[in-house]
Amino acid sequence: MRKEDCIFCKIINGDIPSNTIYENSDFKVIMDASPATKGHVLILPKEHFKDIYDIDAETAGKLFQLASVVARALKEALHCDGLNILQNNGSIAGQTVFHFHMHLIPRYEGDTVTLKWEEHSVEDMDVEKIRQDIRKAL
Ligand code: AMP
Ligand code: ZN
């Protein structure tokens, strides 16, 4: 997808409106248009990175610093009972907007959010080979 067609780039440029919470030279924090719960926000880097494979480590580090600040603000403002941080990469993982973004989803007793997966036995996997392959790639 071309950067010019990116909905989050358009939000960052002010070409389309958003409910902005915070902005600095690197990031914009907006309310999600279809929130999972009350106070679901997105942190967008201003630069167009497609996904986690595309973003540089320095920006990713700054983004998580900001996430910790926003998380505390959500807790203070909304008195949520918990919070999930979610960041999808690739369609298979649920990414629908291909401009890197981090979800902060406040959680409340009795909310309807599900993020549960089926657990598998490690017996069915060659864990040692997986471990070695990842170590080599690092
Ligand atoms: P993902 O599925 O991880 O790519 O998340 C994309 C998120 O962007 C979804 O939660 C959408 O509700 C949200 N979204 C899409 N368009 C807009 C928009 N114009 N303003 C705010 N949030 C949006
Ligand atoms: Zn973009």
UniProtKB/TrEMBL annotation:
Lineage: superkingdom: Bacteria
Protein name stated in the entry: HIT family protein
GO terms for MF: catalytic activity
Record-annotated HIT domain positions: 7-114
Location of the motif Histidine triad motif: 99-103
PANTHER family the record matches: ADENOSINE 5'-MONOPHOSPHORAMIDASE HNT1, HIT FAMILY PROTEIN 1
Source organism of this protein record: Candidatus Anaerostipes excrementavium
Pfam family, one: HIT
